[in-house]
Amino acid sequence: MKETLKSAALALLIAASLVQSYFLIYRLPGTNPVVKTENDYVATENMGAAMEASSMIFPKQLVVHLGDNKHTVFYPDSTFYNLIFSRLQGRQFDGFQRDVAQSRDWAKIRSEDEGIELEFGTGIPVPLLQKIMQIAPDPLFESESIDRIFLYSSKNEDKVHVFFFSVQGDVVYEAAKADLTVQDLKQHVDFGRSWMPYTLVDNTYYVPDKPIEMVESTLETGQYTLEQMQRSFFDPSITRNIREKDGSEIYTDSKRSLQVKQNRNWINYTDPAVPATGETSPDKNALSAVDFVNQHGGWSGRYRMELGEETDGKQTVRFQQYYDNYPIIDVPDFHYGIMKLEMREGTTTGYERSMLYVKTENQSKRIVQLPYGEDLQARVAAAAKNSRITALYPGYRPSMGEAGITLKAVWVLELEDGTVQVLQ
Fold first, then answer.
1. Regulatory protein YycH domain: from which residue to which, for each copy (predicted)?
2. DSSP string for 42-84
3. Can you state the percent helix, strand and coil of the chain, rounding each to 5?
4. Could you give the domains of the chain?
């Protein structure tokens, strides 16, 4: 009898030991192991949502050319923007033929012919465009990045021309086989005939002939905690804190660092010792950047992807946050509205973002009108001085107050050297 009891007790002790070992290695069922390699990260809990890269690839603006030097512009998530873009996403494009951009007089085409331009702002790699549009595989074309798609039909011609503009600037690709008729294009163009008229200036940017109405808002904010963000990057037990003279703080595990600025609501993460993973490409960098944000903080709104040029093996991937139909502009005195990642061979070496997010309840709103016409053109010229203007569009300038974040409606000016100015 005693031997039986001893055996049962021994079995119980062994079972308890196994259970204890399990919980030492694993937190709870469904969570990540505590035991990790030095390059692993802890999954972030109770933060922003995960998103797919395809939801962040869309044109910065959609321009409709009506002929007779008349134009209009639709901005993301507006009714006609969504209608036209969704229909074009269902069409098929094939038979790509390479040509030089100077082969056609684009200024004349914009002025005289009916057409639609999808302007992406920065180059989008073709493999990413294929995630949102029906673009046939083509080895030569798939190595390109596209910043503009131009569809038009010349007068007295029963054909729709579809051109994809390379970010290089001097190369275009025509889709010789496009599942789009002249009548289809005309129907899309007709959506813009009763909309706000715009004037094309210097064959580059568009100025409305009438005032644009926008909603200015003050939004209540929440904030992800520093502890949450720390846990997503480091093992807190081996993290030390360094306070800088400028008031910022740095948390580090001796290899990676997390700098906290702007009253503890802006972070800058760096990992300079990331191991090389082999060959890379802009589309892989973009997809890896999305995955990294999904794992480290997540998303707190709608974002549009922007890719910078790859230099010295590094590439910047930016995500521009939108409110309503317009982008929130990052400004020097209050960083908000963007996430910026530095990628090397598909791996994140730098990551900047705000820890603030806006709440949908307790909003204060008012309708305002932005400058237009000749007044706006004069302001733009004064701000640009002698620099070449590449884009003009409405946006929101954020500022922080006691009631939350206020989004002020503004015109945003982009110059050839990459400078972004908010017109006062």
1. 3-417
2. PPP-SSSBP--GGGG---SEEEEEEETTEEEEE-TTSHHHHHH
3. 25, 40, 35
4. 54-195 (no CATH), 221-358 (3.30.310.160), 360-423 (no CATH)
Tally the C-alpha atoms within 13 A of residue 403's C-alpha that lie toward its C-beta.
11
H or E segment and range at residue 358: strand 356-358
Q: Which residues contact 217 (CB under 8 A, 6 or more apart)?
A: 323, 363, 364, 365, 406, 407
Inter-residue contact 74 to 62 (CB < 8 Å): yes
Is residue 223 helix, strand or coil?
Answer: strand
In angstroms, rounded to a whole number, what is the distance separating the alpha carbons of residues 156 and 168? 32
Dihedrals phi, psi of 361, to nearest 5 degrees: -90, 165
- Give kind and range of the element (H or E) at residue 383: helix 373-384
CB 64 within 8 A of CB 71: yes
Per the CB < 8 A criterion, the answer to whether 307 and 282 are in contact is yes
Tens digit of each residue's pLDDT, the chain (424 residues): 444 544 555 455 445 554 444 443 333 333 333 333 334 444 445 588 999 999 999 999 999 999 999 999 999 999 999 999 999 999 999 999 999 999 899 999 999 999 999 999 899 999 999 999 999 999 989 999 999 999 999 988 899 999 999 998 889 999 999 999 999 999 999 999 999 999 999 999 999 999 999 999 999 999 988 888 888 887 777 777 777 666 678 888 878 888 988 777 899 999 987 666 667 789 999 999 999 999 999 999 999 999 998 888 889 999 999 999 999 999 988 999 999 999 998 899 999 999 999 887 778 899 999 999 999 999 999 999 889 999 999 999 999 998 899 999 999 999 998 899 999 7
Classify 239 in phi/psi space as left (phi over 0), alpha (psi -120 to 50) or beta: beta
pTM for the full predicted model: 0.86
Distance, in Å, from the CA atom of 298 to the CA atom of 175, rounded to the nearest integer, reads 37
SS3 (DSSP) at 282: helix
Strand locations in 68-133, DSSP E?
A: 70-74, 92-100, 114-125
Residues 424 and 420: their CA atoms lie apart, in Å, by 13
Task: Give me the half-sphere count of Cα atoms (radius 13 Å) on the Cβ side of residue 159.
Answer: 9
CA 407 – CA 328 distance, rounded (Å)? 8
